[in-house]
Amino acid sequence: MQIGSFELGLISVITVLMLCLFIFASRLKRNVHLAASIITVLGILGTFVGIAYGLYMFDETQIEQSIPSLLAGLKIAFLTSIIGIFLSIVITSILHELENNN
Fold first, then answer.
1. What is the pLDDT of residues 25-83, one digit of tens each?
2. Residue 62: left if φ>0, alpha if ψ -120 to 50, beta else—which one?
């Protein structure tokens, strides 16, 4: 499985946005619950962006040549969802640990 520069760039931007949101929210403890939800939403947004990219680049008159673009969009879609869900689980786990320690 190869990831092109566009896919890697988009995944990187979405991941950095998610991490920045987490860092910002962790400084304001009351917003950590909100950060977990927003990170999940950003992951889902990345899913739709990836699918839209793949479909936009797909040319039904040249199916064989269009398949790599469609698959690249699906890679973006799945990877951003996985990153968003993973970070949301991490944030929620950290929050529960912090609440249990107080």
1. 666 666 666 777 777 887 888 888 888 888 888 888 998 988 888 888 888 888 888 88
2. beta
